Amino acid sequence: MWREYFIPDSLDQALDLITRYAGEARIIAGGTDLVVEFDRRLRSPCALVDISRLPGLDFIRLDDEGWLHLGPLVTHNDVIASCLCTERALPLAQACRQVGAPQIRNRGTVAGNLITASPANDTITALMALDAMVTLRSAHGERRVALADFYAGVRKTVMQPDEVLVDIACRALGAGRSGTFIKLGLRRAQAIAVVNCAIVLATGEDGRTTDARIALGAVAPLIVRAHQAEQWLIGQVLDEATISQAAALATQAAQPIDDIRSSAEYRRDAVAVLVRRALDRLANGAANDASADAPALLRIPPQRASDGHAPAIPNSMPPIRTMINGREYAVDNPEAQEKTLLRLLREDCGLTGTKEGCSEGECGACTVILDGRAVMACLVPAPRAHGATIVTIEGVSDLATVEGTDESGDRLHPLQQAFIEAGAVQCGYCTPGFIMSGAALLCEHPQPSDAQIKESISGNLCRCTGYYKIIEAFQRVRSDYERR
Fold first, then answer.
1. What residues does 217 pair with on adjacent strands?
2. By the 8 A CB rule, do 162 and 15 touch?
């Protein structure tokens, strides 16, 4: 795993650390990809510099020149929850909602997604269509790079080892500019794109296109622009013939391959379908196809969550001091420093209710609430627990506004009681993860819609396929709330 772990108290201190380690240190914020790479031994051990709680780096703001800026700690759920993003950078908000599941979106940052540099990443495609720029900072200064010039190959960027991405800027929509994002995956959540597409159009008062940006993902070694289709659209009205021709021209930008998710031929056909659908949306003024329901972010309201600020750790490997289910823990075991939060909870804190299923953020059995946000514990480094407040299945009843008891007199969360009444437990292994996701949802939306319920558990797998009874349990809690 990682060799050393630092929690700096400023960005300057973080820059000093990665400069001092000269290529042997990595910045970590969300770490949802990085932790898996360590676990699979795809990455050599190095020092980690955790900036996830540095103040002032989660900004979302619009400047006077019409550029929308995102800080390096802005998560996918931060974008989804931002009215500014949904109104002025809709393709990005739509792309963020397609990334992983709510627990992943609570940890994963947009900056980290860009740096991962996969040609199937969703946010890169959206930001490419929005003419994004990134700002890179080192101890020696700053430089701005167009996102189109940021990538040097598959999973390769032009970033230097001592640089940190400190700002993402894109042209805000509005005043004749509109855009949308569409993704084709093998399932509705937790799916890597087979193909994705983002389109941004500028339209004149006469209804004719004055500028076009079409970005395509998962069809070439890099995210690509469909320049021929873009040129065709300029000066045109979005009628059926224009859209059909643009969709056909867009396929010429694709250089797909056969892989486990799709054949190259299918991808090429899918490009035409997605471009057509996206243009149809824009032509019909239906760029935002999202549900009218508020998203299920799985975040506890601020008055019930800690602020998440931890004391700085200028030197690596101190004891991990954390608050779990209202009780203070101090873990002095040096081996715990190189574990995940999941293993820390189970092996060092004796809290075995949190289950290990996949160890890569796919099944949700290890869902816990970290500083007010539901996360996958298998993707969080154990030292991140230092100074944090954590709720596990053992303490979930503390999140309830109304409690019940089981036959032994133990306190139950209403959702736990509903699981019993609805027969929603089969083998039971996945149940703690479902309960934790559901408890976070019910704090956020006490009367969730069916769509919100399904979104809240989109990152949780039941291998016994008991989903109907699980959803029924949520509905029972909702009905009880309505009757009160």
1. 196
2. yes
Compute φ and ψ for 15, nearest 5 degrees: -65, -40
| Same fold across 56-283 and 292-484 | no
Residue 305, pLDDT score: 57
Domain covering 56-283 assigned CATH 3.30.200.20 in the classification = no
The SS3 of residue 80 is: helix
Give the whole-angstrom CA distance, residue 78 versus residue 70: 10
Q: Rounded distance, CA 144 to CA 182, Å? A: 28
Per-domain residue ranges for the chain? 56-283, 292-484
* Whole-prediction pTM: 0.95
468 backbone dihedrals φ, ψ, rounded to 5°? -60, -45
pLDDT reported for residue 227: 98
Nearest to 379 by CA among 52, 13, 46: 52
Residue written as token pair 């892989």:
259
| Residue 175 · residue 210 · CB < 8 Å | no
Which of the 8 DSSP states describes residue 252? G
Which residues are registered as beta bridge partners of 328? 323
Q: pLDDT tens-digit profile of 103-112?
A: 999 999 999 9
Which secondary structure element, helix H or strand E, spans residue 351, and what is its range?
none
Residue identified by tokens 């931890």 is 310
What's the one-letter identity of residue 247? A
What is the reported pLDDT for 114? 98
Q: Which of 386, 388, 390 is nearest to 48 (CA)?
A: 386
What CATH class has 292-484? alpha beta
How many CB atoms are located within 10 Å of the residue 434 CB?
27
In this structure, how many other beta carbons lie within 10 angstroms of the beta carbon of residue 97? 22
Distance CA 25, CA 43 (A): 12
For residue 244, give both structure tokens: 């059909």
